[in-house]
Amino acid sequence: MGGPIATxxxxxxxxxxxxxxxxxxxxxxxxxxxxxxxxxxxxxxCGAQVRAIFAQFDPDFSSHSLDEATLALDGFCERNSxxxxxxxxxx
Length: 91
Prior knowledge:
This protein has helices at 10-13, 23-29, 40-57, 74-79, 84-90, and strands at residues 62-65, 68-70. It is elongated, with a radius of gyration of 19 Å. A two-stranded antiparallel sheet has the order 1-2. Strand 1 (62-65) and strand 2 form a beta hairpin. It has 5 helices and 2 strands, in the order αααββαα. The protein is mainly alpha-helical and 91 residues long. Helix content is 46%, strand content 8%. The N and C termini lie far apart (39 Å).
């Protein structure tokens, strides 16, 4: 509870809880706040799986951190004869 908040639910944010806030401050703002332990190994493993998927769409994608990346999908669309309009119907 003493470490910084990694992320906060939308409900907790309504009480003023924010990322990087000390846990004791967050608890003062939102006494009913529940802390969930992190699982960095799982987070890293899932991040690697997502990056492997990104590489299928853009082999030169840029990974900024474990959970942020930038992809250029124009090459994928051209190779697969997909227009942006059609692409959105896939999802």
